[in-house]
């Protein structure tokens, strides 16, 4: 036994709750899949027949749900793929700060101040114009794999 104190800082994250495994052959168009460590919406799936080495292969084409970038992957249909836990929440827009961060009202009545305006120029324009006109706006926030981004807007003004 030593008298030294050991401090372990856990910097690694197993990512256990961010994704779940699903057999490649069961993933369909409009579902979600992780390609190159990015959460993607599947826009195209094609399956090849079993070849001389015995595995049918699935060819996935997906769009990154945050950047819109097109990503592709080929996986044996019997193997597991990671599927991200994707959730969508609606918040009322309270304020837009000068630095691009927004203040959102949660259902519990608290505020959420850690989100920036989205990268989509059209959506940013809609949000800013609607907000400057004094409309009551509700934004949809999509979250997956530790990332969050606004992806839609609704006007709930009377």
Topology of this structure?
Layout: E1 19-23, E2 32-35, E3 38-47, E4 57-64, E5 70-76, E6 80-84, E7 87-96, E8 101-105, E9 111-116, H1 121-132, E10 137-144, E11 147-155
Antiparallel strand pairs: 1-6, 2-3, 3-4, 4-5, 7-8, 7-10, 8-9, 10-11
What does this protein look like?
- By secondary structure, the protein is mainly β.
- The chain has 1 helix and 11 strands, in the order E-E-E-E-E-E-E-E-E-H-E-E.
- The chain has one helix at 121-132; strands spanning 19-23, 32-35, 38-47, 57-64, 70-76, 80-84, 87-96, 101-105, 111-116, 137-144, 147-155.
- The strands form 3 sheets. Strands 9-8-7-10-11 form a 5-stranded antiparallel β-sheet, covered by helices on one side. Strands 2-3-4-5 form a 4-stranded antiparallel β-sheet, with no helix packed on it. It has a two-stranded antiparallel sheet with strand order 1-6.
- It is elongated and about 65 Å long.
């Amino acid at each position: 036994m030593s008298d030294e104190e050991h401090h372990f800082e856990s910097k690694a994250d197993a990512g256990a709750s961010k994704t779940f495994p699903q057999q490649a052959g069961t993933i369909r168009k409009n579902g979600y899949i992780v390609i190159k460590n990015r959460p993607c919406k599947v826009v195209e799936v094609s399956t090849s027949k079993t070849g001389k080495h015995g595995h049918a292969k699935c060819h996935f084409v997906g769009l990154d749900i945050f950047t819109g970038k097109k990503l592709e992957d080929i996986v044996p249909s019997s193997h597991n793929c990671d599927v991200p836990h994707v959730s969508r929440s609606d918040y009322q827009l309270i304020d837009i700060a000068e630095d691009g961060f927004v203040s959102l009202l949660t259902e519990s009545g608290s505020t959420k101040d850690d989100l920036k305006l989205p990268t989509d120029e059209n959506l940013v324009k809609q949000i800013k114009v609607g907000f400057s006109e004094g409309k009551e706006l509700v934004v949809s926030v999509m979250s997956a794999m530790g990332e969050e981004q606004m992806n839609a807007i609704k006007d709930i003004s009377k």
